[in-house]
Amino acid sequence: MRTKLVARGKKKGCIFFLSILFSQSTISYKRISAGGPAHCQIILLVIDSSRCEACAAERGKDATAGMPLARSLSVTSLSGLEEWDEEFDREDAVLFEIAWEVANKVGGIYTVIQTKARLTCEEWGENYFLVGPYTESNVRTQVELIEPCNAPLRRTIDKMNSSGCKVYFGRWLIEGSPYVILLDVGFTAWSLDRWKSELWENCGIGVPWFDREANDAILFGFLTAWLLGEYAAQCDEPPHIVAHFHEWLAGLGLVLCRQRQLPVATIFTTHATLLGRYLCAGNVDFYNNLAEFNVDKEAGDRQIYHRYCLERAAARCAHVFTTVSQITAIEAEHLLRRKPDIVTPNGLNVKKFSAMHEFQNLHAQSKARIQEFVRGHFYGHLDFNLDKTVFLFIAGRYEFSNKGADIFLEALARLNYLLRVNHSDLTVIAFFIMPARTNNFNVETLKGQAVRKQLWDTAQTVKERFGKKLYESLLVGQLPDVSKMLDKEDFTMMKRAIFATQRQCLPPICTHNMLEDSSDPILNCIRRIGLFNSAQDRVKVIFHPEFLSSTSPLLPMDYEEFVRGCHLGVFPSYYEPWGYTPAECTVMGIPSVSTNLSGFGCFMEEHIADPSAYGIYILDRRYRGVDESCNQLTSFLFQFCQQSRRQRIIQRNRTERLSDLLDWRYLGRYYVSARHMALAKAFPDTYIYEPQEPSSATGFRYPRPASVPPSPAHSLHSSPHHSEAEDEEEPYDEDLEAEKDRVNIRQPVNVPNRNKNQTVGLPEKN
């Protein structure tokens, strides 16, 4: 069934309070007067599941549940969403989006909120506020502090500041310039013990004193609930407040809103479950044993039970619970004991170029800069052709197994063997961009860049002297005597420069001095597989244990520039709820390897008939063993290495055309649906859902391109070393192929501005 949100006549004299029934996560609604009962015991029931009969029965049911999850309002299919035929007035509706990563770069949620802000501002206008923690260093560079223009909010902030808090208001200097409310958790640390006691008495959650992150979550949660409650009290008429909470660090505010029965429609989004991340890092068969885990015991064994309780309470108490991918929805249903109401995939702000070839030019420019770094890094051992060199990379949080660095290294060792036995003249350089503990740059690495620069300066000096002699010879009308163009001094300079490039050791693997060299997982794995950048190896490895920066003296490139210059991103993650790194590759037209255990990989498999034809290689880590998955990844890499230059260009064009799938202009509508669903549940006398039959639009899947495939398995040639003349004979028309793809794409509709008919159709239940 497809559903639609309709606004009823508003009743100004009432406040709607909600009570939750624990059984099977269902929600019922009860309208009571403002002076009615305000006590709610449901929080304790949700948390202390060991004493709840309903939870025990639910565990028994989960133990017999299979792996597949029937989608309830999952909107990861590209179906056409119908427009509202009722006007929805947002004048008295306010959206607060709460996250620890607001103006505070910690992880991937920062990217979600930052890139989505512009679209949300267009939808909600002046009624959209982001709430996050106050960090002075971030505020100095990212936030412009101003006075609130919203009268109730101004009174709220003044009241809180006069009561012993520090609340700041301003504009976040990003695209869309959204309003931000920043709460100074350190300034209110004096209330920590009192709030911990209140949390224990009302919710049965005890937080140990030594967990600083959990302490910050308590302070932030109580301040958030205080802010929302005070705002509701300061409004002249009962407002329609929507509060969207991201992750467990912000989730306590949601729990308190429900326990205090505030008139707030709540949404909780989990980007990755706490317990899931810990279990996967522990080298367990996670996805095949989801129904078997004793979640309370597993959380307790890892000393995160209090965090798990906060996360589970937020998921269970929210009006609408969402996750970022279908694979995370399966995980959440088993670990958090609630089936997500809707899947809200993460997007990016896609900037299309007016000319199709422009992003190819950017690739060439960035690749040239990477080549310069490689020339310095491998000085003295530069016995390979950079024009026949392919750059691979993996980047992200340093989680050796979760991010798939282990299987990537093993596949590189097998790829090295295949290239050597096939006598390939292609060289593969694999970059590992994962931050680890270091104390400085490696001296040998810095020396390499200095030697490269010295060689460049020597060549420029000789060139200038050669050019001057050539110029003077031509001025007098004589052809130059080549034997006299370079004198003995020039040859001496060049010989000294050549001798300076001599090196007794192999090029370094790591660009920095590691503090824990002997126990580092990547370095230990490289020692085991024997990839030491020797002359015989066709696969070279460079470990850069620091995030990239344009101010670095070693590799002065931003991450975006670096990605554009590479040929393939490899992300064989075992645990990846969404996967921004392959998504960023796709938007920039760079092919990538993902897995069917990542949200991005599942999303692409669902929407593309043949992902590999579009440069999206999906590795099977769900139904295959580690060795089989490693062989499959090796096959992907070997096939990619067999492509000709022209085939790689064709593939990048196809990859870049998938960027519309990941644009917030399309994916943002799923957040719109979640907010409207929450409004209907929180204020049932004002908004209701009316079911209607699904439309004829059932979405689309990108077809396999009809033109020459980029995979060498189907190529006309058996070797990547054929001539450019042979390339030109391949039947390929770029404009015609692009037009075929566009015919199969239902263009994303723009989210309408405030006070206009809204696009709100909800997805079909499967």
From TrEMBL:
Q: What class of enzyme is it?
A: transferase
Q: Name one Pfam family in it.
A: Glycogen_syn
Tell me one GO biological process term: glycogen biosynthetic process
Q: Does the keyword Coiled coil apply?
A: no
Q: In which pathway does it act?
A: Glycan biosynthesis; glycogen biosynthesis
Q: What are the protein's GO molecular function terms?
A: alpha-1,4-glucan glucosyltransferase (UDP-glucose donor) activity
Q: What GO cellular component entries does it have?
A: cytoplasm
Q: Give the E.C. number(s).
A: 2.4.1.11
Q: Which reaction does it catalyse?
A: [(1->4)-alpha-D-glucosyl](n) + UDP-alpha-D-glucose = [(1->4)-alpha-D-glucosyl](n+1) + UDP + H(+)
Per UniProt, which keywords does this protein have?
Allosteric enzyme, Glycogen biosynthesis, Glycosyltransferase, Phosphoprotein, Transferase
Subunit structure comment from the entry? Part of the GYS1-GYG1 complex, a heterooctamer composed of a tetramer of GYS1 and 2 dimers of GYG1, where each GYS1 protomer binds to one GYG1 subunit (via GYG1 C-terminus); the GYS1 tetramer may dissociate from GYG1 dimers to continue glycogen polymerization on its own.
Q: What does this protein do?
A: Glycogen synthase participates in the glycogen biosynthetic process along with glycogenin and glycogen branching enzyme. Extends the primer composed of a few glucose units formed by glycogenin by adding new glucose units to it. In this context, glycogen synthase transfers the glycosyl residue from UDP-Glc to the non-reducing end of alpha-1,4-glucan. Transfers the glycosyl residue from UDP-Glc to the non-reducing end of alpha-1,4-glucan.
Similarity section? Belongs to the glycosyltransferase 3 family.
Under what name is this protein listed?
A: Glycogen [starch] synthase
